[in-house]
Amino acid sequence: MEQNLTKKDLWKLFMRLNTMRITLNYETLQGVGFMRAIAPVLEKTYTDKEELSKAMKRHAAFYNSHVNGDAAILAITAAMEESTGPDEKEGISALKTGLMGPLAGLGDSLIKFTWVPIVGSIGASLAFTGSIIGPILMFILYNIVNMGLRYFAIVYGYKKGVSFLNDNQENNIIQRISTMANVVGLMVVGAIIATIIDVQTPLEISAGSDEAAGEVGENVISVQEMLDQIMPSVLSLAVTVAVYLILKKTNGRHAALIIIIMMVLTVALTYFGIL
């Protein structure tokens, strides 16, 4: 496959990729942004204005994926535009449609549900101590991976071209990476629940005296110690799961109201000695 794009052309793809969502709309979502991002490639590939117009209209159709997935799709699409004939252009649209779903899931798993919680917990732990380094460090760590992956996907995706698709069909690479990312993400979320969310109860149960053992005073059992023996941080987990289920059932429509209710309940339960 002959590849004509220079490093300067790939840099243009990368820069335009970062502004794809500016033109987000309800009709084509990222379609207009994708067309603008790949426009330099199309202008270099098609010398005839009519063919260029058709190509731009083809890429302005409905499209939506994760921004890091956008980078790989943009690069592979650019490689296909150079290597396919006039009768094979519809296959490019099919390629975009087939890739945007799986790569959106992969991007969410790796970035949104794995890397963001990791750097967020690091930044939050520093911020809780009053250090301004927390949010700065989170921003730097997040973008090292986020922006680095975008540029790597542009360069590597263009070099590999369509051979990546054949490798994925044989080895199911996308599904494997997505599964591993989901596992790591769940581990991180579990660790955050146990370390950041701290729900404990001071309640105690009086079991009375044990006269047979010669004990006259009351036996007091701490509810929190009893719960910790069963499962540490079980109250934190229960509150997290309850809030998650409520948000999921209401599609997040009442998130602000839930926060206010949680604050009121926390104050009330603390006042009555339950929390």
Beta-strand portion reads under 5%
The main β sheet shows up as:
2 strands, antiparallel
SSE run: HHHHHHHHEEHHH
Q: Indicate the low-confidence ranges by residue numbers.
A: none
The share of residues in helices is over 70%
The total number of structural domains is: 2
In short:
The chain has 275 residues and is an all-alpha fold.
Describe the structure.
This protein is mostly helical and 275 residues long. It folds into 2 domains: 7-192, no CATH class; 199-209 and 218-271, no CATH class. It has 11 helices and 2 strands. Strands 1-2 form a two-stranded antiparallel ribbon. Helix 1 (7-17) crosses helix 6 (133-160). The model has no long low-confidence stretch (mean pLDDT 79). Pfam families: EIID-AGA (PF03613). It comes from Corticicoccus populi. This is PTS system mannose/fructose/sorbose family transporter subunit IID. The chain crosses the membrane at residues 113-133, 139-158, 179-197, 230-247, 254-274.
Please tag this protein with its features.
single chain; 275 residues; mainly alpha; two-stranded antiparallel sheet; 2 strands; 71% helix; membrane; PTS system mannose/fructose/sorbose family transporter subunit IID
Topology:
Layout (H helix, E strand, L loop, with lengths): L6 H11 L13 H15 L3 H11 L7 H17 L6 H39 L4 H28 L2 H9 L1 H23 L8 E3 L13 E3 H8 L3 H16 L5 H17 L4
Antiparallel strand pairs: 1-2
Helix pairs in contact: 1-2, 1-4, 1-6, 2-3, 2-4, 4-5, 4-6, 5-6, 5-8
